[in-house]
Amino acid sequence: MNKADLTARIARESGQTKADVNRVLDAFLATVTKALRKGDKVKLVGFGTFSVIRRKARAGRDPQTGGPIRIPARRAAKFSAGEDLRAAVR
Fold it and tell me: What's the whole-number mean pLDDT along residues 30-36?
């Protein structure tokens, strides 16, 4: 399912227009992105938690040459599914 499919389905189930749903979805994504950029967590009880983790620098291999390379430390987004979502998927 892509964003257009999600927007259409939410619009159909909520009785809202696709344009309204798209604005709300864009606002939600922007808000979550800003929170993660600041290092905050976003918890949606039952659904899951969006957070930021720090990955340490590590050694790796260049796939073309096979030679060693250094992979720098970085921050990465993480999603942990909540209990309700895990149960629904089982």
Answer: 96
